[in-house]
Design a protein that fits this description.
58% helix, mainly alpha, 252 residues
């Protein structure tokens, strides 16, 4: 995903136009030209998808302040993303690649080994999502949504995206340390390592490894959420001035 993102964002505009022109004959290209619009004023979550596929429902583009999410809405939106068919398929593809590379470890090969590893990976992701976006934000009154910065240079926006791992909004709109991220991911890692992972992995080292991997993925996810609208505009061959909301600048 990282390679595709950089390739599309940094590809010269004239090459993108030729690629777009070459694809416009298909019905898929016609559908793809419909941009995913930022949430309407007053809307609490998004219908957007990263790369037009992966759930991106907690991201708000140029939203400023948004209405408070109720506890039920935090859980509902988390479940919507965690059990989305495309999300499940994405985990399945990742697992298949791992098995093809012979990295399934003690889970074994064949269909049985694939099924076990798939179940473990899906559970890891789903539990972490619920702990960091629903359970802890509800208990601690924190807002699990990502508010895209949308303006400024690449380094400034990258810094902002990474900083959102450490800083979050409360339900009242104030900024504070992101307890939900660290307590939620740590709790999820502990549940994973000491319950359904292999017996030899029921230890602190395994839990720390799972926790570090999950936080790393969350950092990458924030970065993609920040720059995805720019990539989408490039893909859709639209000029920044025609689709950029007030205060937003095109990525350069």
């Amino acid at each position: 995903m990282m390679t595709m993102f950089l390739w599309l964002v940094l590809l010269p505009q004239n090459q993108q136009e030729r690629l777009q022109g070459a694809s416009c004959d298909g019905s898929t290209a016609v559908a793809a030209r419909q941009p995913a619009k930022p949430p309407a004023p007053g809307k609490k979550t998004s219908d957007d998808r990263l790369f037009f596929a992966l759930p991106n429902f907690f991201t708000l583009e140029n939203a400023g302040d948004a209405p408070r999410l109720a506890v039920a809405e935090k859980f509902k939106t988390t479940a919507r993303g965690a059990f989305d068919p495309i999300q499940v398929a994405f985990v399945g593809i990742q697992t298949g690649i791992t098995q093809a590379q012979g990295q399934t470890g003690s889970y074994g090969a064949g269909v049985e080994g694939y099924a076990k590893l798939l179940a473990v990976r899906f559970a890891d992701g789903a539990i972490e999502n619920f702990m960091t976006r629903a359970v802890m934000p509800s208990l601690l009154h924190e807002d699990p949504r990502y508010y895209q910065k949308g303006s400024g240079g690449f380094r400034r926006r990258t810094y902002y995206a990474v900083s959102r791992i450490f800083v979050t909004r409360t339900d009242s709109g104030a900024n504070r340390f992101n307890f939900s991220e660290f307590l939620g991911s740590a709790s999820a890692a502990g549940i994973s390592a000491y319950s359904y992972h292999l017996p030899q992995d029921h230890n602190l080292v395994s839990a720390l490894g799972i926790w570090g991997t999950q936080v790393g993925w969350d950092i990458l996810s924030n970065w993609l959420k920040e720059f995805w609208p720019d990539m989408r505009r490039r893909i859709l061959k639209q000029h920044a001035g025609s689709v950029t909301a007030p205060g937003e600048t095109e990525f350069k």
